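Below: protein 1.
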Amino acid sequence: MIAVIQRVSESSVSIENAIKSSIQTGVMILLGIEEADAEDDVEWLSRKISQLRIFPDDNGVMNRSLIDIEGEALVISQFTLHASTKKGNRPSYIKAARPETAIPLYEKFIEQLSVDISKRVQSGEFGADMQVALVNDGPVTIIIDTKDKK
């Protein structure tokens, strides 16, 4: 499971020119799921993101978590995070999970993150053509891969 976490002052996702979800201060997460991912990846990643100290404290030091600031989260499914570009110019998505694997894990991640931050997590729509807007605050962008849990 790969997550691209962006600290935002606002973010939204639209489908067919209508806003589906929006948040203010918090994180916008692009989530890529591969066939090898499991529920333990969901739990580990959710805990890691909810406790990640990427928000400034009173001294301007990144020392506060999403939980600490009572921030919001927007999760967008993003199978292209598992693109392989080793051969040729057309990316291969062979590592990306098929919907029957990915959808339950995507929904479980949203549910788990909601529990971890004690707040309803906003989301896009799995498999939809979405337009994502955000104001990346900082900018702060962090990439976490559950296959590299060091």
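Below: protein 2.
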Amino acid sequence: MALSSKEIETLVKRRHPGFEAGVSHWDFLESCYNGGREWFDDHIFRYIKEGDGEYKDRVKRAYRFNHTREIVDLVNKYLFKAEVHRNYEDAPKVVQEFWMRATRAGQPIEQYMRQLSLKSSTFGRIWVVVDNTKADGSLISRRDEKKAGIRTYSYFVRPQMVLDMSFDKEQNLNWILIEESARDDADPFDSSGKLIRRFRLWTREYWLLFEEKGSGNRKTYHQIDGAEHGLGVVPVFNFDNIETDDLYSAPALIGDIAYLDRAVANYLSNLDAIIQDQSFSQLAMPAQGLLPGDDAYNKLLEMGTKRVFLFDGEGGSQPFYLSPDVKQAELILQVVKQIINEIYHSVGMAGERTKQDNSVGIDNSSGVAKAYDFERVNSLLASKGDSLDRCEANLVRLVCLWNGEEEPEDLVKYPDSFDVRRLVDEFDISSRLALLEAPSAVRREQMRALVDKLFPRLKDDLRKSIDGELQTWPPKDPVDSLYGSAVNTDTGQDTGQPT
């Protein structure tokens, strides 16, 4: 497909409806997570009538604890603390190889999924591409592929780099346009080292790569590569922080937290200015005691920490020290603590704050409040787990398409619940229920929970078999065998109670 420079320029300047409104927000979220000293230059605000010198010095002194990154990393830590089950036995060889080396650089699937989860929490929505190192979509044998080093890999794209796309009636991609960047650095002597803008168009049957050349009004666009892949689908899909029906964006985990975090940094910068200007008491003395040309003037400056306030001492007033007003600093500290508290409460992680810096944190919370916090964070993690399930299912589907394999079902399962009870705890609870002679129905439900944790990837026929055996478990006590036990006439199940 031969396209003119003008046609390519028209294409690469297209933007989807949510791009212009979202790009500044995505940039802000990314900068808040990354942090660094350059963050303060853009996000510490000048207050009214502040001079250039004072503002510059205040920005230079600014500091920040990155609550934005802390929240994202904590969620990721809890999310991947539970074991992810991948069915290696039923997975095709190409999927197993992909799991071992999921990215172009050879990153395994475990690390890659952690990275995808982190980025989706930061941006809300990222786009995942599954590509192949073959130059075109021609079918060759697995032996030839292995000899040539051909493999399938994946990479993610930040939402700022996804310029436009089209969907069909079922909201499947017709095509997508992605901006890329390359650096002219192949030859250490004969290269400029400049970044080159490139644009990749993925469709259901082929892909094209365009490059921008020149600068200013002399920019031109050229097609530098392209091939047919013949997959019948666009090998790109969106990965959302939380599932949504929106075609162009999804809410980020830190969508509101980042702005609260910026407010904390600004309040702390104002507090720093108060401390710098008012930490020390200032000397006030009668003007009559300051004689011109007297060496005592320099000594007075030292006594007053380089600053002396003069007043008319005609009435016989004595020198004294002025203490700064601490009410402003106390107000700022109260507001900062409240905002930090809200940041962690918003995701159910108030327990991560200590008693010292959170007066209404974990140490002073009631059991009901802690239970609500647990339910909030458990619900959040379960939603993230569902998104990760969908993401890995799409990865497996596209890997199989690239390699002409039939797509298997249910190869990957993320936990549905992220409670703090481990498998050992479930065994302990089961044994204690037996010692208490708990009703059979209670013990059966506990055993089902134990089986779910012990064998999370059971096949349907085996699970039905186990459920059937649980109907007659635990064995009847001798007393029950002598006198019989009550049976529920509706379900036909043994209630465990003697008749």
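The mean pLDDT is 81.
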